Amino acid sequence: MTAVGPPCSSESSFMSPSMNAFLSEYDHMTWLKYIYDRTVHIMSKRKSREKHLTVGECVSQVQRVLRERFCHQRLPDKPVGLESQYKHLLELLRRTAVHGESNSVLIIGPRGSGKTMLLRCALRELLELQEVKTNILQVHLSGLLQTDDRIALREITRQLQLENVVGDKVFGSFAENLVFLLDALKKGDKSSSRPVFFILDEFDLFAHHKNQTLLYNLLDVSQSAQAPVAVVGLTCRLDVLELLEKRVKSRFSHRQIHLLSSLTISQYRDAFRAELTLQDDFPDSKFSQEWNLDISKLCEDKSVDEILQKHYNSSKDFRSLHSLLLLAVSRVSVSSPTLRAVDLLEASRMSSADSKGNILHGLSILELCLIISMKHLNDIYEGEPFNFQMVHNEFKKFLQRKSHSIHNFEKPVVFK
Amino acid sequence: MAGAALRCPGCPEDKLQTLTEDLTCREAQAGTLLTLMGEPDQYSYPSVFIYGHRASGKSHVLLTLLSQLQLPHAAVSCVECVSAGLMFEQVLSALFGADAASLLPRAPSLSDFVRIYRQACVQHPAQHTRYIVVERAELLRDMEANLLPALLRLQELVDDNVTVFLLSEIVWEKFRPNTGCFEPLLLHFPDYTKAELLHILSRDTHPSYTPELYSSYINILLGVFYSVCRDLRELRHLAALNFSKFCEPMERGEARESDTHKLWRNIEPHLKKAMQSVYLREVSSVQWEEQQQMDEKEATALRGLSAHAHVELPYYSKFLLIAAYLASYNPARTDRRFFLKHHGKMKKTNFLKKHEKTSNHLLGPKPFPLDRLLAIFYSVVDSRVAPTASVFSQISSLVTLQLLTQVGHSDQLDSPKYKCAVSLDFILAIS
Taking every annotated instance into account, which residue ranges of this chain make up the domain ORC5 lid (chain B) (predicted)? Predict the structure, then answer.
């Protein structure tokens, strides 16, 4: 337990400027070995302590990798189970980027179904093309942040780095900005100007803006032959088209990509396994092999399967799986370097705890008595509302009849 | 209590030792928090929601952890932040220093906050997870609708290693916005058990007495108060107030420390009295202490706040109020029987009235029109009263004194309706 410290300090020692001088004194072979050491992340110079350090460090590495996966939502290499949608979106975006075609599309799916992930994957693949990389402009807007059109417009001008932006300050009034922006977009045509991707996160919130000016203008540009733009909206509301005004709706291309989670339980199990498995680029191959072996053993465990089944029944999205796994993985430490079924069980118990029951558990006896008398009232009068007077009366009856003046409190005390 | 419960990779042992001492009876929760936070340079979950009763040590545990381990954090309380802008300013200045906060425009929107946060992040890239602690998070729901969902996914929005802790007494189900949001991890702080309360309360001992005596005193205190109150702060307050009374027999030499039974007999009625006065804040704690010093006076000889409820009213106002009370708590169909018939039957009707009143009392006052009030008023007052301007102005002044309330503000002059808003004890005192 004492030998856990090093990773931070070792990281910083890599960064130190004296390292280069230090290296130059070594011959080529030691340098190679040093590089090897660095990649394997084994920092100890003494053989005797190596084994012990590795465990601590490996655990910390595992935590780092998995935490990044669960919390920070690192992109996977390929979207799982969404191949057709991915192809569709990629093709659409590619046409805008390469051929200068204006498009609009809505990605619709429940929370945690991987909308942002899908889009980011598509953008990442698109940006790998050399001609696209230098060519396109991206504007990211979120309905949570840009709560009205004025703010959104400022953000657009800022992100496009247009002429009336100095530093990150935007000049001009709302109307000026809009006219300026529209002019800039209108002046362009298919062949010459750079394509712009507008990515609207929480699209349904943009539909609540006054007159939907922003949406109207964006979709209008995409509809008429002006600068090539692609408007991609992400939303979790299925009825989002009903929110749009008629003129806005008519300009929208009605392309929708639905991400309805179609995971079966076996796919869910596979996802569970895949989420926990370490990749090949993990520094210590021996540890990662052991870890992966443990994980596949864990997947066959009966109790783990029950937990997964329960979670699958309550929700199929990845986020709840992630939060479950994070709770489990955070219990992995040096003293217990593998993930056990007990950890999962504990995590599942924590995430499915009944919060109202918990709160109820902390009440004093008097408060519980009052709740019981409220329950009585509710049973007798079937859903009629009641006030303190009635509850107190019921409580007094209880005192007279059953309990023998133990809980005989004054009325103000009961009231409090 | 178990000292070795806290452990965390990446933070020194001696600090953990002091932490363990600070966080008695909260080792399990602190341990969970530590494992959730992980090593300082690793990513942590975007948002954690902590709920539990009042004074169950939520903010104490979290803030001690953060400050002892010297993690960069910003603690804001929603009570102080009346607008979102204040909160943004506090967060930015706590995380990045005052110059970042000064970049905020005059009425900052969330967009500005996120933009400046991103800028500051580029200048000071995160080596450690940054933490934002939001206390009394239930008030977030009353602020802008976008604030809570945005805070929950702040990590994604600002693209920094940041974790938001929300502390509240209300369960998460009451927070969820209707279009859904990023679900935080839920963490419950259970209430202290009786043994834990005993342990915590006996830690602050009196210098001139032994700790055993103090803990036995706490034991008695809990015996009286535990079934009513489990709030640690309240109990600690009560313990501090009443301890001097507990020690009196020893100072006078009537009892020794070992005479627990005698001490108990002495203090118990006193504590029971305290429940009716100090606990309800009828007698302020300063008054309570003064009383104990004077001692010859009875403990509740001082009239509390609620005993001051008696108000001196003019003659007709009293009758008006009584009439209003009768109108509020009696059904209109019995008016004829009670108020019109000759006076010989008054005694009998009074009895009947009382009988009906108790059942009606439960449902609260009913509204009545002004005409009915005046009719009852004339039948209650024995002499002839002219309906002068002063009688009517007295009615409206009763409304401003909040003894009557006007119901349904539809019409001011034409048949306004009133309710009587005073209790039975008050009316009995007047009549």
Answer: 214-281
